[in-house]
Design brief:
Elements lengths: L4 H13 L3 H9 L3 H23 L2 H18 L9 H22 L7 H6 L7 H12 L2 H12 L4 H8 L3 H31 L1
């Protein structure tokens, strides 16, 4: 076998091993549990990551991830475009995050214990990164979700807008407002830190 044919054969075999998304969705719709496990395997990290960034609690993010996949499983028969499954899963998770955050606002006694968040080891980061992370956490949920989807998850404008259920133009406006709020929050934090060190 020639040296050119071997990489082509390996690429063909790996493509065959990695079943197409449409095939996996088709099998999941027919009730194949291993197919739905494959869908979860392919998307669980992204869903958990989104949930953790929005909720800032490991246990809540895990619960929300499970709930998101339960809802996706129930909605599979109604999904029109198999190729949009990833965006659909992310949108379900985003909507659950917003619902959870609204519920927490109505029932503040159910908020997480600050020591729970302090026990999660944070990666070493410069002070500016910490200021920005705190400022993002303080944003209203709709702005936090826009920032998370576009900047932290790396979704396109179209994907982020779909996830939030708004138009790409509305997303750009929301991102602009969020960036303005973040600039003000970081500037206020810098001013506060400067005053503390002067005293």
């Amino acid at each position: 076998m020639t040296s050119v044919a071997l990489p082509l054969l390996n690429a063909f075999c790996s493509h065959r091993r990695e079943e197409s998304l449409a095939g996996v969705v088709h099998r999941a719709r027919r009730g194949d549990p291993s197919a739905f496990e494959e869908i979860v395997r392919r998307h669980q990290y992204r869903v958990y990551n989104l949930a953790y960034r929005m909720l800032r609690d490991h246990d809540d993010a895990e619960d929300l991830t499970q709930e998101a996949f339960l809802r996706v499983f129930q909605s599979l028969p109604r999904l029109r475009d198999d190729r949009a499954l990833g965006a659909f899963i992310t949108r379900v998770a985003a909507n659950l995050c917003l619902t959870w955050l609204r519920s927490r606002r109505r029932h503040p006694e159910q908020t997480t214990n600050p020591t729970d968040l302090a026990s999660v080891p944070a990666p070493a980061a410069p002070e500016r990164h910490e200021q920005l992370r705190a400022a993002v956490s303080d944003l209203a949920p709709k702005y936090r979700l826009a920032i998370t989807a576009f900047y932290l998850e790396g979704c396109s404008y179209a994907e982020s807008a779909y996830m939030l259920g708004i138009t790409p133009r509305a997303l750009k406006t929301r991102l602009h407002r969020a960036r303005t709020m973040l600039r003000k929050a970081v500037a206020a934090s810098d001013t506060g830190a400067g005053e503390e060190s002067a005293t």
